[in-house]
Write a structure and sequence with these properties.
By secondary structure, the protein is α/β, with parallel strands linked by helices. The chain has one domain. The chain is 40% helix and 20% strand. It has four helices and five strands; from the N terminus they run ααβββαβαβ. It has a five-stranded mixed beta sheet, with helices on one face. The longest helix is centred in the first third of the chain and has 16 residues. The radius of gyration is 17 Å and the shape is globular. The N and C termini lie far apart (42 Å).
Length: 119
């Protein structure tokens, strides 16, 4: 009985932490690198949360973009980022994500395709 109550509590806590996570089909596309900006200001890269609201430097995001870019170049593949943003995310947060991509320091230029989602 006590184990069942503990499992129920753990499930509730897990679900509470995932409330504002976008659907998986918006975060990932096979063969593409997807950056996703939510209306709450969170930034995901290939399904992983890399920046919380209020993060100004976005260093983790830029570092991950650089790593993915280098890996693609070493494997001889074309690299571009699909930047998906919810309309409510705001222009400022989307610009921060774009600035982080440009400042990632990756070799060469990184093409970005911007897609604004209207819920």
């Amino acid at each position: 009985m006590r184990l069942a109550a503990s499992l129920a509590l753990a499930t509730l806590l897990l679900l509470a932490g995932c409330q504002n996570t976008p659907p998986r089909d918006k975060l990932l596309r096979p063969g593409e690198t997807v950056a996703y900006v939510t209306e709450y200001g969170r930034i995901y890269l290939d399904g992983l949360l890399v920046a919380e609201p209020g993060d100004r430097a976005l260093r983790a995001f830029a570092t991950e973009v650089t790593r993915l870019h280098r890996d693609s170049l070493q494997k001889g593949r074309k690299f571009e980022i699909l930047l998906r943003a919810e309309k409510a995310a705001g222009v400022e947060r989307v610009n921060e994500a774009l600035d982080a991509i440009v400042a990632s320091g990756g070799p060469g230029k990184i093409p970005v395709c911007l897609e604004v989602l209207d819920p």
